[in-house]
Amino acid sequence: MEKVLKLLADGSFHSGEALGSALGISRAAVWKKLKMLEELGLQLDSVKGKGYRLHPGVELLDQQKILDGLDQAVREAVVIQTCLKTASTNDLVRDIHVASPAIKGVCLAEYQTSGRGRRGRSWNNPFGSTISMSARWFYSAGMASLEGLSLAVGLSVVKALKSCGADNLKLKWPNDVLWQSSADFQKLSGILLEVHGDPTGDCEVIIGIGVNIALSQEQINDINQPAVDIQRVCGVTVSRNRVASALINELCRTLDAFSQHGFSHFKKQWEQYDAFAGQNVVLDASGNRVSGVASGVNVRGGLLLKTGEGMMVFNGGEVSLKAGSPGKPLAKKSAEK
User: Fold this and answer.
1) What domains are defined for the chain?
2) Which of 47, 110, 242, 323 is 20 to 30 Å from the Cα of 27, by its Cα?
3) In this model, does residue 333 exceed pLDDT 50?
4) How far apart are CA 94 and CA 107, in angstroms?
């Protein structure tokens, strides 16, 4: 399939006969490989008498283009790997060899068979239509010092997407990036952190980031919550490789600042994008529902909720946040990456 994609990457039509000749396989075998790619979600055009091509707007990952879009300092601080297909970039990124703990490993995939989201949910990522990216970062100050990191990473995603032309972006505590259209919110990106190591010493942090880039309407409809892609947000075609470079640039800057200052450095910036600031919300913490007014976050990234019993603090984990009026049941919607 990788060889087929390389031939189709120019965006031109290629006949089944020409593809078969270039690959040394039959036209029937070519057709089977193309069907496999379509089943993974890749958009292909088929025109009788012309052949097959990638649907306009589909851009495959290009490692060199991603590297070319990085700041010089970032380019020297990361090792990047792109792949066609993997179970999960969060798992694959651990296989990237880095010369020292100061170097960050970054993995991007065209397609994940088992992309993970919060609370055991899967992440929908049609082939070539999203950014599925994971970064591996080593941190020496212990797990307790990582509080608020998912919020800081969310802020870095907002900055990266804004640099690519996106606007009206909001952050939903603790780890979603939303686009605000009129009074409605639609999910554009999600973040998942996995931490391993010593509570007071060296840690390995795996940061998974998913961003919708160019989805068909059918793919949008298949997502179990209101969703959007960056093409619709910007109203123009946005380079997938450019978005990948911007994400890596901002993520590296954020991780460097976080290692020096912690989340307190990002608190005010995060609150500027808080989707539910000052609104009535209902928190569902492992089945326990608490109503109140969203009142920002504390210096550790915990959600501040003003309730009838006073101000309460909620941390990450099995907690979801949904807008609603106190005492009224909410429509059940998934909000995990």
Assistant:
1) 2-54 (1.10.10.10), 63-272 (3.30.930.10), 280-323 (2.30.30.100)
2) 110
3) no
4) 9
